[in-house]
Known about the structure:
homodimer; alpha/beta; globular
Amino acid sequence: MEKPYVIGIDIGGTNTVFGIVDARGTILYSCSIKTGKHADVNDYVGELAQGLERIIEQAGGHGKIKGIGVGAPNGNYFTGCIEFAPNLPWKGTIPLAQLISEKLNGIPVTLTNDANAAAIGEMTYGAARGMRDFIMITLGTGVGSGIVIGGNLVYGHDGFAGELGHVITRRHNGRMCGCGREGCLEAYASATGVARTAREYLEIRTDESILRNLNPDEITSKDVYDAAMKNDKLAIEIFNATGSMLGEAFADFVAFSSPEAIILFGGLAKAGDLIMKPVKESLDKNVLKVFAGKTKLLFSQLKESDAAVLGASALGWETKDF
Amino acid sequence: MEKPYVIGIDIGGTNTVFGIVDARGTILYSCSIKTGKHADVNDYVGELAQGLERIIEQAGGHGKIKGIGVGAPNGNYFTGCIEFAPNLPWKGTIPLAQLISEKLNGIPVTLTNDANAAAIGEMTYGAARGMRDFIMITLGTGVGSGIVIGGNLVYGHDGFAGELGHVITRRHNGRMCGCGREGCLEAYASATGVARTAREYLEIRTDESILRNLNPDEITSKDVYDAAMKNDKLAIEIFNATGSMLGEAFADFVAFSSPEAIILFGGLAKAGDLIMKPVKESLDKNVLKVFAGKTKLLFSQLKESDAAVLGASALGWETKDF
């Protein structure tokens, strides 16, 4: 194989992590820089390119690199631009794929958002190998999604499809969501959503719970997990309620694209059976009969620390020019 | 062009209509038989084949026919089978595509459900020509859908994707749906759903309405339409409420696949602005900001009497062998 490696770049609000990856999904060399350090995106790309050149040299030079994939908030696959990302220092539309490619003698660069990158990563190296229809759900600070249909990522006509964290799951008296609307799945089934549920339960209910020993304003989903692992009834109920809402939403997703699997990834997915069991019960209860028992519920098979870079790198195998 | 025609077969609970169609979407010859006449599917296929042979002869013989497309309830594109269709006389799994093809000297036959056929028809001859991402919503006795992503119909891993009439639009105190669950879009936004809304409004409200002159049990969506066209306030509100629920659901569909257009078809779509205006207002109000104003709302451009046969026939251009 003449070009045996790809590069994955994961751009987060705090850090940008990048690495060289082989066809099996092994990260050979990796490195990171601070995303927020440069107010000018050209300075940022300059530092990034320096770091990239270093690991490219370690890997044997430009001739070994098939392509670069970038996962970034609000990344648009069609244009290669980051568009109005609230948590990044650069405003407006940033032609990032082009800027990076230019700095690296034209190595092709493809860009998409983080959840799409995770889905492609799972399809290339993880639990979705060989699948042509699946949905990746990332349960982190927010709820993201990457949808694969017929072996292709769904980008929609504008490049922004797959915002399943923002389907409305409670139409009346729904929680305020960061997107400005009410009742979004993300407001309940994210890590922050679980913490909100904990605060709500502690306020309206009177039963005992380990969680009452904590300052309500500082409770995290990790605290709820820890309490549930100690058999705290209230904490277990919080996971049951969260899983139940996810299962309801998944039943609608199945009615849409009838995927072979829905794959969970991210912080909340680490709760394992605590979240998966109620998700499965709720999906079984809510799904349309024709789909009953057909959709597998799986956890990501990518190690969380590597997944973002792996996901982005997987795009490198299918790079295109800008 | 050696094989200039395709055949479309639309199988309904009462009638089976079929016709020969050219590349522009003109139905050249057509015919129909009673679906329910034959308890044995082989007898049915026998009569159907006789009718098909007649119109094939009119069109110049087998050599002119590129393929046959069939739209049928519970039709599975992958297997060519009708699977457990409640409104057809044949039980279990019927390999209809194969049965028809065998009777016609191996002309390739492709089968899918009615709503998918309508979507392909719209893409081939109608309002979705040139579009790669759109959703077809059929508002008839029920609510059906055909989803096109990247130029391809979405079948899902089992062939049954696109059941958007059965996303849950009211999670609490939802109406009983024919599928056995509660709160489905179809229970509200179908022709029968509109009639149910009329009965509910007449019962709980006290304001004047032309609809009060009718026997509530016999009110149809057409009655509500006629009343609304006479400026009946209650009837107009029924359309507003129906359109509003459709718009809410569409906002979720847009978050899923970000289509260029959502196309309305079927009986209720004939209400025109009466239904489209509240749909549009509700979609604008409910859609995630990143998609605001991006999705066109359109009516089907296929004449309703022809649409089912045209839709099925469009499949004939992309036939495969079984």
